[in-house]
Amino acid sequence: MSKVFKQAAAVLAAATLLLSFAASVYAHATNLWCYIEKGRVYVEGSFMGSGRKVQNGKVIVVNEKGDKVLEGDTDKEGNFNFEPPYKGKMTILLRVDQAHDADFELTEQDFKDAEAEEKGAGEAKPAAEAEAKPAAEATK
Predict the structure, then answer these.
(1) 10 Å Cβ neighbour count for 72?
(2) Is 32 within 8 Å of 60 (Cβ atoms)?
(3) What is the pLDDT of residue 98?
(4) C or N terminus of the chain, fewer CB within 10 Å?
(5) Per-residue pLDDT reduced to its tens digit, 111-137
(6) Mean pLDDT across the stretch 87-103?
(7) What whole-number distance in Å separates Cα of residue 126 and Cα of residue 29?
(8) How many C-beta atoms lie closer than 10 Å to residue 19's C-beta?
(9) Pairing state of beta strands 90-97 and 79-82?
């Protein structure tokens, strides 16, 4: 074989190895989703690509100063929830191991939006029921 062909084959092999490693790392990146519902913060952890749930992942909640305010572990479904110690800016960290972690930031506005959404949902139900009553009475 020619020297150029051998060099090209070596470069191609190295590139293939590098791309397969990068795809493997990407496929196992950690997803973290957090939301607020009924005054509680819900945390969901999974692995990108496979969708496998993060079991026994360490959840750490820190305030704006970086002080730890809460800690817990995800369950077998990758879930954890807590009553927030305050309604303001906090960062939720999910630690799986040295190579897998993720973070999610909640703000004071997120808490306000969640409260407004819940308040709006509560008000919408009676209005819908009020509209339904005349229609039900008309069919009698």
Answers:
(1) 14
(2) no
(3) 82
(4) C
(5) 999 999 999 886 655 444 444 444 443
(6) 93
(7) 44
(8) 10
(9) unpaired
